[in-house]
Amino acid sequence: MAYEGILLGMGNPLLDISAVVDEEFLNKYDVKLNNAILAEDKHLPMYDELASKDNVEFIAGGATQNSIKVAQWLLQIPGATSYIGCIGKDKFGEEMKKNSKIAGVNVHYYEHESTPTGTCAVCVVGGERSLIANLSAANCYKSEHLKRPENWALVEKAKYYYIAGFFLTVSPDSIQLVAEHAAANNKIFSMNLSAPFICEFFRDVQEKVLPYMDYVYGNETEARTFSKVHGWETDNVEEIAIKISQWPKASGTHKRITVITQGADPVVVAEDGKVKKFPVILLPKEKLVDTNGAGDAFVGGFLSQLVQEKPIEECVRAGCYAANVIIQRSGCTYPEKPDFK
């Protein structure tokens, strides 16, 4: 099987500015642990304050880009993955390009002349993380870039697509183009619920593309928010996963499979009106560095097996392996070679 360019991701490339902080810091900027939000004016001073901390780290991130890099790492086949998003023409943008090259991902960034590369504040308390994204250039992505022949060629070449829900706030028309291409060509299109605010405030664009999703990923909090927004009156993650998988589909070629992670609790997979649960690899608390990128890594691991047409059990196993590696390190980073059998 030819793996070159088999998996394409599209999203918001952000540079993570990650530091360990205290509760007081969270309260000062009015942020909650285990949440992901878009920055408001009140959050803007936070970036400099984090950047000046002794323990600060700058790590190339962005949810979709993290997943694609992890899939690439597990595949160990140069150029198996591609990624599209918008960065600025600046130091952070150069850093991002360098990082992607090392990761082996074929990136086609749209480089914005006047807007700085996006950043994401990662506040870590007791191993748990809170994310505050200042999209900047990432917010400037336009479907005109996607339609250029050299970029659309990546869409044509890929057989699997993954886009985090966060990109719905930036370029829903780009998502729609890829979703419709996937449906018309019997390819596999997948997205992530990504954050409670996406399910709440971007409901319309999320619902518009949901019929095209062959795989829907998310965590338990996002699933419960999705349920609440749609008036399902259930907090039961298994029931919610089934209901999402039964949402009408644009194309009948593939059934929809919903995959919901629950931190240390089992992964819930819903298909054909039934649920399977898979335990995760438990980690002693003292080995936990931070959960930043854990969900992204799970999806990356899952996709690395999916594109090889492995059974769902193997996809979940690889997802759990990748998440387990990432939470023992700072940010979404990994050792040089995977040790997944």
TrEMBL record:
CDD domains assigned: adenosine_kinase
Pfam families referenced in this protein's UniProt entry, alphabetically: PfkB (PF00294)
Annotated catalysed reactions: adenosine + ATP = AMP + ADP + H(+)
UniProt domain Carbohydrate kinase PfkB: residue ranges: 28-335
EC numbers, comma separated: 2.7.1.20
Keywords: ATP-binding, Kinase, Magnesium, Nucleotide-binding, Purine salvage, Transferase
GO function terms (MF aspect): kinase activity
Pathway named in the protein's UniProt entry: Purine metabolism; AMP biosynthesis via salvage pathway; AMP from adenosine: step 1/1
Alphabetical list of SUPFAM superfamilies matching this protein: Ribokinase-like (SSF53613)
PROSITE patterns given in the database record: PFKB_KINASES_2
Enzyme class: transferase
Cofactor(s) for this UniProt protein: Mg(2+)
Signal peptide: none
Family: Belongs to the carbohydrate kinase PfkB family.
Functional description taken from the UniProt entry: ATP dependent phosphorylation of adenosine and other related nucleoside analogs to monophosphate derivatives.
Protein name: Adenosine kinase
The species this protein was found in: Ziziphus jujuba
